[in-house]
Amino acid sequence: MKRSRLLLSVTIIFFWASEYCHSPYFTPYLQTLGFTAELIGIMTGIYGFTQTFVRIPMGIITDVTGCYKKTILVGTVFTTVSSFGLIFSTSFASILLCRMLAGIAASSWLAFTILYAAYYEADESVTAVTNVNAYNNTGRFLAFILGTITASLWGYKIPLVCSFLTGVIAVACAVFLKPVPIKREPLQVSHLAAVFVHPAVLSASFFAVMMQIFLQGTVYSFTSAVAKSIGASALEIGINTALFTVVQVVLAGFIGGKVLKRLSTVQSVAIGFASMAACCLLVGTARNMLPLYAAQILGGVSNLMVNSVLTAQIIRKIPQENQSTAMGLFQALYGIGMTAGPLLTGALAGRYSYGTAYGFIAVLMIGTAVLAPVILGKIERA
Q1: How many other CB atoms are found less than 10 A from the CB of residue 287?
Q2: pLDDT tens readout for residues 296-348
């Protein structure tokens, strides 16, 4: 199993590097092409919108067939094709299409998560999820290193080439993954229906939607634009974006092995969303890069906490033969947040200011933190 974990870990790293090499510079790059904040919000948001419709059927098909390796291979191929297309795309329609392909690729993440967890014992679910998220973030960190170096030297477009090349490596690794047979019962509609109304899945999905509003509406989209607006260089933008990921890679073991074991699910989620609100306020009122750096560090810790406990909740509560379906529903629903976040921030920033947009997101995060004990309390006691 150790060899299988290692190969899948490398696949995860290069898969997410492909998805994110260009991420810190994508909004500034689109601005150089002349697109408005509203149109950039649409092009950024279609990434999550696509996932909302793709993840559920992909999860069901993966559960029925047990073809986790094939789903992963499809994901690596699509992210590579998407990146290659973006290198040459300058029109709204072509960029939108490439972003949709990237969304389909990201939808395959449910198979990565379930296959990696299958390499562990059932009682090690939190450890497995924390580790898989760490490799996810390692890939993003690699992406930001490659993106920062190439963007600083050759401009905002070249990180797209890095996305393509890392995607090729991910495809090569995925080809050699070892499938894991999972004992499963024949497909029954009643079992699927039970997953779709399971309180653990629905509650986790709600908080994931709010988390993605924060991530996609700020960290992965307009925070780079805020940095650029206060005079940040390409290097500073890269460092700022990388901090969000670096802190998760460095602290993954400590957070998963120490902090989350001492905190309940309710406490972890409430603290996480309160921290996200603080991040928004720091960025929205920033006049130099120091508050942005602090926000990225705090945001990285909060994202690691919330994402780990929400994903682990689903794996603990749902039978293994239905976990891909549950993860598909979970990730499809949080695609709503991935779509709404950039659209909301883009609309508010375009009409008012970045400060107003980030202030509004902060209010949403505070409200979500307050709801944590109300929604999650009963489920945690069950």
Answers
A1: 8
A2: 999 999 998 998 888 877 777 777 667 767 777 777 787 788 888 988 998 99
Q: Report the distance separating Cα 343 and Cα 376, nearest Å.
A: 28
Asked if residue 372 is part of any domain, the answer here is yes
The tens digit of pLDDT for each residue in 268-307 reads 999 999 999 999 999 999 999 999 999 999 999 999 899 8
Give me the CATH number covering residue 306: 1.20.1250.20
Exposure string of 333-360, with b = 16+ CB inside 10 Å and e = fewer, is bbbbbbbbbbbbbbebbbeeebbebbbb
Domain with 128, as residue range(s), is 2-176+186-381
One-letter amino acid for residue 78 of the chain: F
In a domain, 333, yes or no: yes
Give domain status of residue 36, yes or no.
yes
Is residue 237, in this structure, part of any structural domain at all? yes
Angle at 251 between CA 150 and CA 144, to 5 degrees: 10
| Inter-axis angle of helices 234-254 and 289-317, nearest 10 | 40
Q: At residue 267, does pLDDT exceed 70?
A: yes
